[in-house]
Amino acid sequence: MRRERPRSLTAAALAAIIAVGPVALSAAGSAPAANAAAMRSATITIRASGSTMRASGSVWQPPADADWQWELGKPLVTTNANLMGTGITAYNGDTAPGDNPTVYDIDAIENPASTVAALHQLGDHAICYIEVGTAGNYYTAAQEGIATTYYAQLKAAGDLGNKLSGYKEYFININAPSAVSIIESMIDQQCAGKGFDAVETDLDETFGNNEGKTGFTITQANEEAYLTTLANYMHGLGLGWIAKNLDDTGIASFVDDMAPLAQGIISEQCNQYSTCSLLSPFQTAGKWIGNAEYAPETQAKFCASDNAANINGILFNVNLAGGRKPCR
């Protein structure tokens, strides 16, 4: 499955950020929660791009200050301290076990239900990493535990377009009902079926050729409708939604429209590319924000601002294969 992608903002995205202007992110207290297992029953109705978006049901809401580990480079081994990201002193001086992760974002296919169960036994939560905007032919049907791989299903349905630059993946026609159905089946089988608590949706901002020319006409309204459908489906399965890199489009309205449906967001390099201000709807609502930075960034460059804004910033290795340098 495709991994982290160090990003480079397009000229259009940079122009949009400049047009929005800076938005101050003041320090805020963490979301009220007795512990990491806190649940929130949410019923939200909003208007976006002319359509009503509604999320209802009881889903896990990560505390705003929850420590996390992002392990996509290899399957998680709960007895491996490096992969678990434990026993580390944070930039602000916090030490283990207080700053050990309580949230683990791991690959949906490579990690079995037993790993999710092991995390739950430790009192931790698990986020299910999937891709919803592109698909690659990375796994066999046996590895996915189904008769026909998701990639093969999408290809047979005619729902794959142009190749994603730098990866052996192809853009998904998110407007196709068949594609929506296939992605929903992946969420059900791999995320809900294995007992995950939430879903991270990577490549969830392919509209307007933000990630490259898709081969399809995908507008912001199309993207919002697609993500609304997926989020409501997740919520119906008892899964939270962790959005991904909504800010790297440089479009504040996109983040504003999606934030009420999501339980949190992961951003990559929002300090390096000056997009952290676009995450303000999550910060204002007291929702969890995970920020991943990579070299050449250093903790000294971004940790103070992330801590002040109640953003859970971490300096990761680019392969996301163990280890982490948290800000707090």
Summarize the structure.
By secondary structure, this protein is α/β, with parallel strands linked by helices. 27% of the residues lie in helices and 23% in strands. The chain is built from ten helices and 14 strands.
Account of the 3D structure:
The chain has 328 residues and is an alpha/beta fold. It has a single domain, classed as Aldolase class I (TIM Barrel, Alpha-Beta Barrel). The chain is built from 10 helices and 14 strands. The strands form 3 sheets. It has a 9-stranded mixed β-sheet with strand order 3-4-5-9-10-11-12-13-14. Strands 6-8-7 form a 3-stranded antiparallel β-sheet, with helices on one face. A two-stranded antiparallel ribbon has the order 1-2. Helix 6 (177-192) runs parallel beside helix 7. The protein starts with 10 loop residues before the first helix and ends with a strand.
- Find the CATH superfamily: Aldolase class I
Using only C-alpha atoms, the radius of gyration works out to 18 Å
Please write the string of helix (H) and strand (E) elements: HEEEHEHEEHHEEHEHEHEHEHEE
How far from one another are the termini?
A: 29 Å
User: What profile does the largest beta sheet have?
Assistant: 9 strands, mixed
Strand content: 15-25%
CATH-level-2 architecture: Alpha-Beta Barrel
Number of domains: 1
Poorly predicted segments: 8-56
Mean pLDDT: 87
Instruction: Count all strands and give the number.
Output: 14
